[in-house]
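Researcher: We are triaging several targets before committing to wet-lab work. For this one, the compound of interest is zinc ion. I'm pasting the protein sequence and the ligand SMILES. What I need is the predicted three-dimensional arrangement of the protein with the ligand bound, expressed as structure tokens, so it can go straight into our comparison scripts without reformatting.
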Amino acid sequence: MIDTNSYKRLAKRLNKTRKTLSEACQELNISIDDVDDYDLDQHIQECSHCGVWGDNHRQDEDNFPICRLCFDLVGR
Ligand SMILES: [Zn+2]
């Protein structure tokens, strides 16, 4: 397990990028095995359409996170 601070650092590193989680973990010297998907979700989410990370994603009709840009494209 990693602490909240590490999740915040990860979120900051990923925000508005299309980095993979493993890239961000490597840069921050965090073991990806210690990252809990659910906990990370509380800080940042990856758009299920274009893959960009953001902290204010909405949800599409299937309840997947979706960024503002894709949300507008889907037209909801
Ligand atoms: Zn998107």
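Researcher: Any quick observations?
Model: The longest strand covers residues 45-46.
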